[in-house]
Amino acid sequence: MSAITRRHFLTTTTGAGLAGVLATGIPPARGQQREISYLCWNNFAPLMDKKLAEIGQRFTKDTGIKLKIDHIAAAQQAAKYASEVQSQAGHDLVEMRMHFPWLYEGQLIDLGDVVADLEKKYGKVLSSAAETARVHGTWRAVPQYHAMFVATYREDLFKKAGLKIPDTWEDLYTVGKELKKMGNPVGIPISQNYDSISTAGPVLWSFGGMEIDKDGKTVRINTPQTALMIEWYKKMFRDCMEPEVLSWDDASNNQAIQQGKAGWIHNPVSAYIVAKQMKLPTADTINHHRTPGGPAGRHETDVPRHIAIWKFSKNAEPAKEFIRYLLGKREVYDEYIMSADAFNLPVYEKLQDHPVLKTDPKYAGLKAEGVQYHCYGWPAPPSDKVQLITNSFIMPNMIAKAVTGTPTKDAIVWAENEMKKIVAG
Amino acid sequence: MAIGRVGVAAVPARVSLRARVGNLLDREEWLGPVFVSPALFLLLLLVAYPFCMALYFSVSNAFIGRPSHFIGIRNFVNLWGSDAFRQTFQNAFVFTGAAVGFKLVLGLSLAMILNQPLWFKRLIRGAVLLPWVIPTALSTLGWWWMFNSLYSVVNWTGLALGLMDPPGPNWLGQRYYAMTAVVVVNIWRGLPFFVITILAGLVSIPRELYEAAEADGAGPIARFWHVTLPLLKPVLGIVVLFSTIFTFSDFNIVYVLTHGGPINSTHLFATLARQVGLETGRIGEGAAISLYLFPVLMIVVWAQLRFVRKQAY
Lengths: 425, 313
Prior knowledge:
The structure holds 2 protein chains of 2 kinds. Chain A is an alpha/beta fold. In chain A, 45% of the residues lie in helices and 14% in strands. Chain A has 2 domains: 33-147 and 303-358, D-Maltodextrin-Binding Protein, domain 2; 150-290 and 392-424, 3-Layer(aba) Sandwich (D-Maltodextrin-Binding Protein, domain 2). In chain A, strand 4 and strand 5 (138-139) form a beta hairpin. Chain A is globular. The mean pLDDT of chain A is 90. Chain B is an all-alpha fold. Chain B has 2 domains: 2-41; 82-312, MetI-like fold, CATH 1.10.3720.10. Chain B contains 15 helices and no strands. In chain B, helix 4 (83-114) runs antiparallel to helix 11 and helix 11 (220-248) runs antiparallel to helix 15. The model of chain B has no long low-confidence stretch (mean pLDDT 88). Chains A and B meet through helix 3, helix 11, helix 15, helix 16 and helix 17 of A and helix 13 of B.
C-alpha cells in the first residue's frame, strides 16, 4: 500500500469536506455565526438612528447574533421593498410604515407571538397601529412607535401680532392672512409627497369628507365636503401661502419654519427637535398646539411604524430575537424612545404617559386631547388599495390642480376617476 | 531528375491539450466566437433577460410579490385612460425635443469655439467635460439647491441684479418653470457629449478644404455651410441619435429635481414607470409604461441610421 502523501491527504479531505457542505447546504460550525440584517428608514429624529446602532451593538454582544443595520430614505422605501420582494433577497428585518404590511401581506411572517408578549407587558396596541400591522387577523408586523402630526407655529410672531392660536381650519385662514402679511406665510405642502397627504387627510375629515367609504370599496371623494375642503385650500393658497408649496418635499416645511420663513406648519415635532439640536435661532420661538378642527370634529394623521420579517429570510428566529430585545425589554425600549426626543412615541396603551413627554414643556401640545388619530384612507379599513391611492398622490394632485386653476368640480372628478381605477384594479 | 519519395515514418502523434486548444484558436471560425462570447453572455444576462422579463410583465397583471396572469395588451390600452400617462407621453417629446435641440446648437457652437487657437485650450476642453463626469444624481442635487424655493441662488442673483420681481420664479412648483428647469439641467449635463464628439469631427476635417474654399472667396458663413456642416453630418447624426435615446429615457434629473411634479407635469416614462411599478406595486403596468418608449426609439434609431448611411456613402 502506498504511503499517503501530504498533498494527497489535503486534496482528499478538502474535496470531501466541500462536497459535504454542498450536499447538506449547512456550513461548518465555524461559519455558522448567526447574522441578521435590518433595513430601517432614515429617521427624521437622527439621534434615534444612532441609538439603534448602539443598541444593535449591545444586542450582538449579549446574544452573539451579528446585526447589520442599513438605512434608507422614507421616499425610497416602497421601491426598495418592491425590489427585495421581487428578487426574494435582501434584508431579514424591514421597517414598515403605515399600511405597508397590507401591501406585502403574503411576503411577511406571522409575528403574533411577539406582539402577544408585548401586549402582555405594555397593554394593547393603539388602534391606528393595530389596524395597519394586523392584516386579516394576523400580525404581519410588530408595532414599534408612531409620530403624530401637530400644529407647529412661531410663538414669537403670534405674540407680536396678537394672534390667537387657531382652533379650527377657518381660524387658521384668519391667522394665516396676517402671517403672510408679516412675511411669514403658512407652509402646507401641496405636492407629490407624504406630508401633503398627512395634512389633506385631517382637513378633509374635519369637513366631513372621505376618500373611500367604510366598506373599503366605494369611492366617496366626489362630495360637497370635498368641495368645501378644496375651497379652503384655494383661499389658503391665495391668501396665506406662497406658490413654493407646490414644489415642496417632505423636509421643506420643516426647513421653512427652521430658517425663519414660515409662521405655521403642520408637521410632527421633528422641525422643533432638529432646530433645538442644531441650536438654530428659531428653536426658542417654535411651539406646538393641538391640531385644528372643523365642522366634523378634530382629526389627525399619525404614522405608526412597525418592524416586519420577510418570509424569504433564512434567519427568522434570530430576527425575532432582535425585535424582542429592542421592544420587549422595557429599559431598552424606553432608551430607544427617549433618544427620539418625543418625535416617535410608544404605541402601547400603558406607555402613553411616557416620561419623554415631560422632558420639554413644548411637548404639551402632543397630548392633543380630543384629537382622533387615523391613518391615510380612513374611514376605509387599511388595504393595499388604500396604500396604492396614497402612493399615487391623488389627493395632493387634486388639490394642486384646483389651486392652480382647474375648476374644483373637475379636480374632484379627476381624483374620483383615478381612485375608481385603483379600487377596480 | 527523378525525385525520390521521402518516406515519413508513422509516428503516433501525441498532441497535448494546450497544443490542441492552440490549434483551435488559430482557426478564425473558433477564435471569433471565443472573443465574442463574454460580451454576448453579458448582453444576454444584463440586457436580453431583463428585456424579456419586462415584455412578460407588460402583458401580465403582475403585482409585487403576487402570482400574475397573462392579460394581453390590456395594460397598454388602459394606460391611455390615465391622465398621468397622457401627460407623461407629451412631456417626453417636449423634454427630448427641447433638450436635444439646444444641445445640438450649443454643442456645435462651443465645439467650433474650442477648435480655434485658444489659451489654456487643453484646460478648457477638460473643464467642458466636467458635467459629463460628475455623477448625475450628485450634480442634480446641486441644481436642486439652486432651484429650491427657499435657498434658490438663481432667484437670489436675479433679484440682486434687478432681473426678477420678488420672490422670483417658483422653479420647481409651476409646470412650465419646472419643465424649463429639468430641460436646463439636461442640457448642462449632456452638452459635453455633443461638444467633444463634434470637436473630434471638426478636427478631422482637412485644412486644405478650408484653404481651397477661402481661395474661391468663401467667407466664414459659406465655409460653415459648404464645408463644415456637410462633413460633420455623419457625426451629428450619431450624436443626435445617442442623445435622443439617452434623453427620452432620462430618469435621474427629473427624479431628483421634481419627482415628476408638479401635478405630473415633468414625469417622463422612466419616472412614471418607477412610481407605478415600484412605489405602488403594479409592476405589470409599470413595465408597460417603460415599453411604450421602445417602438418610438426603434423608429428614431431606424430613421437616423438611414440618414447616417446616406451621408456616409
